[in-house]
Amino acid sequence: MTVLKILTYGNEVLRTPSKEVHKVSVKIQKIVDDLFDTMYSYDNGIGLAAPQIGYNYRIFVLDLAKDGEPPNPAVFINPKIIKKWGALSSFEGCLSFPDVYTYVRRYENIIVKAQNLKGRSFTLEAKNGSLLSRAIQHEYDHLEGILFVDHARSRFETDKLLAEKGLPQINSDYLMEEEELEKEILEKGSNSIQNEDNIPRDTPNCC
Ligand code: CO
After folding, report:
1. Which of 68, 146, 154, 193 has the CB geometry, 3.0–4.6 Å to 141, for a possible disulfide?
2. Which of 114, 116, 101 is nearest to 28 (CA)?
3. Ligand 1 center from residue 177 Cα (angstroms)
4. How much is the pTM?
5. Per-residue pLDDT tens for 111-159?
6. DSSP state of 15
7. Using only C-alpha atoms, what is the Rg of the chain?
8. What is the C-alpha separation between 94 and 89, in angstroms, rounded?
């Protein structure tokens, strides 16, 4: 069992696009084991991507089981999001950004294709802005070198939080405008940043 140190925002590995996995070698198996061990060492850890522990391979793991439920580990190798639609505002954190939580734009629904540890392909649909849907998008981004703050709905609010935690500011080169998603979120109403401030912020998951 190896609990590794999670790389924090500012580390270049987090910005490096990851390589495909061609074979589940001993090394890849070890990375998967270390991802689970490291993720489970955090109370609020529900997912972790290989770059976060220093490996630029296209692998992430999830376990969305709640406290008291049996573990439900899932491995995604070479994932591809093949369809995405609908928009929502998602309150997120990331284990690479200690104690920073902010509202980001996400798709409501996705279909993802990936391989499991045996190399078998599977397809998964995650809908209605579920935790599963949002977690897969968050983890998939890590494999592309994209981080959750790149989707921030409020750049200045997020920069303020980053500064408070001594982390680098949002980099304009990576910031996504996502005008269509933002428009859809606003059209649906009840999701303005002001209204969101009334949402309790005490139980965010991290991945
Ligand atoms: Co993350």
Report:
1. 146
2. 116
3. 20
4. 0.94
5. 999 999 999 999 999 999 999 999 999 999 999 999 999 999 999 999 9
6. G
7. 16
8. 16
